[in-house]
Design a protein that fits this description.
The complex is a heterodimer of chains A (128) and B (530). Chain A has six helices and two strands, in the order H-H-H-H-H-E-E-H. Chain A has a two-stranded antiparallel ribbon. In chain A, helix 1 runs antiparallel to helix 4, helix 3 packs across helix 6 and helix 4 packs antiparallel against helix 6. The chains are: A mainly alpha (128), B alpha/beta (530).
């Protein structure tokens, strides 16, 4: 319980302090891998990630904007660092929390967390 | 009178009698008469060996498969596509155990409960009432110990690892596999040699005749292709002919009751249930997995697990109970759906049926234990919601003995479809939370507003519920002891008594229920004696 509270407080603080810095760094090519849906990329090929991303954007046209998606992803992932490993860790945590809390979306039949669906969408925008 | 003495003489010589060879018009008498020598009938007869009671066991067929006998099980189907009725049950000594696959698992406690989201759910007994009988059934079906906890099996085999899921959400439900026990082979000698069990083959019961007040069964009328008709009298009658034939026999017995015996409330034949069995999704792991606990090699595997949904989540999502088995996609994708295999024209189905009896269940396409796979097919099996419109009725066409043939109307509703989708979604959610895999739903499940079913939707040849159990005669044909409410000496044995189907294959439960019935009749007989 204490760890959860600590993580929560840290996360809120991290978003407030780290977000502007992270956002400015997010376009660096070295970070792009960290933005990809890591788990899904072990199951999906790049084409499937693209198609899944497009399916998400068709469903949520309001998010069809790279900067907006990055912003939402960072907000929901509670990122506190732009280090690729840490960023990936934050996304992993966010994905787990999504599943825990039922924040899921079904795209082309895949039962996905909202975060990884958005990661696919971001990938499709940056690679189209 | 002459016939009676003639029979008595025969009975004293041997305990198996071919009813075709009896003098026409014979009258047979016993304490108990069991109709049908399948899983239920034979299991019950075994309980009476070496008791002071005389038991008659009637089997319509002989000891071998015969086309002529199968023809008596023919019938029509309407509604949801279904298998040819003449092929779904075997009409000989041993019954359908002659080609069953041996899958066994008890019903879950939730299956017995009244669930407000499932109309007509709820048994008058609970899981605890059946537990002692499940335990006894394990031996009859040549299973292992009465242990269906995955931790128990993991202790016996450390490679038997469950997926790391929250058991409060998705748990690993264990199945045990019977060899499978072919009752016609395994128990023939025991039955035939038993001095007090009198097995009559080629004794097709074509009518149950009650007394004038329709409060008790007076006798049964049997016939065969030799043109002989006999009568059977007993203190207690147990009908154990399978869910379709149990209902058919009651409905066709209209001499004293125009709507059929036990059918005062128009319930006989209604609430027919099958398991909906259909491939539903794919489960993809990041790394290849062996998943020994979930794999099955027919004839070798003694236990395996399927993914099941917790009672709490079933209630939260208001869904039917069901489980999903995992089969390597690489192998499963080339496997035809059961409904395709068994729903060809009648001649082809018959040919396949004969082959199945000789060499049951193909053993090809089995997972290689040493091989790991990334992708698995989710094959989901769910209970069907009890539905009064799913039913057995009588046709105007008749079989060779003049008994009206069955018509099965099978229909599936939105609850079944939503349940399958939700079960796979919940498995996907839990595997996602655990960070081990992702689920992909098949096309037909992707639109939650689409009520249609794919052509490969099938059942498991599991027929249940046509003489459902209830304490209230207005809502059930039999009471908690499987006695027909309106007839004091008539009992129905087997899965026809199920008020709900649960997810597991029905054999284990139907035998457990039959053993419970057997004990009940023993007590009743003892009460009459003292």
């Amino acid at each position: 319980m204490q760890r959860r509270i600590f993580m929560g407080i840290s996360a809120i603080g991290a978003v407030a302090i780290g977000f502007p810095y992270l956002y400015s760094c997010s376009n660096r090519s070295g970070d792009q891998l960290a933005w990809r849906p890591f788990f899904l990329s072990r199951i999906f090929d790049l084409q499937t990630i693209m198609e899944t991303g497009r399916a998400y954007l068709n469903k949520e046209p309001a998010e069809q904007d790279r900067r907006k998606l990055e912003e939402i992803l960072l907000m929901s992932s509670k990122a506190s660092s732009s280090e690729p490993d840490q960023l990936r860790q934050y996304f992993d945590n966010s994905i787990r929390e999504d599943f825990e809390n039922g924040r899921m979306v079904i795209l082309k039949g895949w039962v996905l967390s909202l975060t990884e669906a958005r990661q696919c969408a971001l990938f499709s925008l940056t690679h189209s | 009178m002459r016939a009676f003495f003639f029979n008595t003489f025969l009975i004293n010589q041997k305990m198996h009698i071919d009813a075709r060879k009896l003098e026409n018009g014979s009258v047979l008498e016993a304490d108990i008469c069991i109709v049908g020598a399948g899983a239920a009938g034979i299991s019950m007869a075994l309980q009476w060996i070496n008791t002071p009671y005389k038991v008659i066991l009637l089997e319509g067929g002989g000891f071998e498969y015969e086309d002529q006998m199968q023809e008596l099980f023919a019938g029509k189907t309407t509604g949801q596509r279904y298998f040819p009725l003449r092929s779904v049950r075997l009409h000989y000594f041993g019954g359908t155990t002659g080609h069953w696959a041996g899958f066994c698992s008890p019903l879950d406690p939730v299956d017995f409960k009244k669930r407000d989201w499932i109309e007509h759910s709820g048994w008058p007994i609970n899981r605890g009432d059946l537990d002692p009988f499940y335990e006894r059934t394990q031996e009859i079906l040549e299973l292992g110990p009465y242990e269906y906890n995955s931790a128990y099996w993991q202790k016996r085999d450390p490679a038997f690892l469950p997926l790391p899921l929250d058991e409060g959400r998705v748990w690993s439900k264990i199945w045990q596999f019977s060899p499978p026990t072919r009752f016609g082979v395994k128990y023939r000698e025991s039955i035939v040699k038993a001095k007090n069990i009198h097995l009559y083959t080629y004794a097709n019961v074509i009518e149950i005749i009650s007394n004038d007040s329709v409060s008790a069964v007076k006798e049964l009328k049997t016939t065969n292709f030799a043109g002989k008709e006999h009568r059977v009298r007993a203190k207690f009658f147990v009908i154990a002919c399978c869910a379709i034939q149990n209902a058919r026999l009651l409905l066709a017995s209209r001499r004293q009751a125009p709507n059929g015996l036990g059918n005062d409330q128009d319930l006989v034949g209604r609430y027919f249930m099958e398991h909906v069995e259909v491939k539903s999704g794919e489960l993809w792991f990041a790394e290849p997995q062996r998943l020994k606990m979930y794999m099955m090699d027919f004839g070798t595997t003694k236990t395996r697990a399927e993914l099941a949904i917790s009672e709490a989540l079933q209630e939260k999502h208001r869904i039917l109970n069901g489980t999903a088995s995992l089969n390597p996609l690489e192998l499963a994708k080339n496997r035809p759906a059961f409904i395709e295999t068994w729903n060809k024209n009648e001649k082809e189905a018959e040919k396949e049926l004969r082959m199945k009896v000789k060499k049951p269940i193909p053993s090809s396409n089995i997972p290689q234990p040493a091989k790991a796979y990334k992708g698995f097919q989710l094959f989901t099996r769910i209970e069907q919601a009890p539905n009064p419109n799913c039913r057995i009725t009588l046709d105007t066409d008749r079989d060779a003995f003049g008994v009206p043939l069955s018509i099965l109307h099978w229909e599936l509703g939105s609850l079944e479809k939503r349940s399958i989708r939700t079960i796979d979604e919940l498995i996907g959610q839990e595997c996602g939370r655990a960070g081990i895999a992702r689920v992909k739903l098949l096309d037909y499940l992707q639109d939650e507003n689409d009520p249609s079913w794919p052509s490969y939707t099938g059942g498991g040849w599991h027929h249940m519920g046509t003489t459902r159990m209830s304490d209230d005669p207005k809502t059930g044909v039999v009471d908690r002891d499987c006695k027909v409410h309106t007839l004091h000496n008539l009992f129905m044995a087997g899965s026809s008594c199920y008020p709900t189907a649960g997810a597991p294959n029905p054999t284990l439960t139907l035998i457990a229920l039959t053993l419970r019935l057997s004990d009940h009749i023993k007590k009743s007989l003892a009460g009459q004696t003292h």
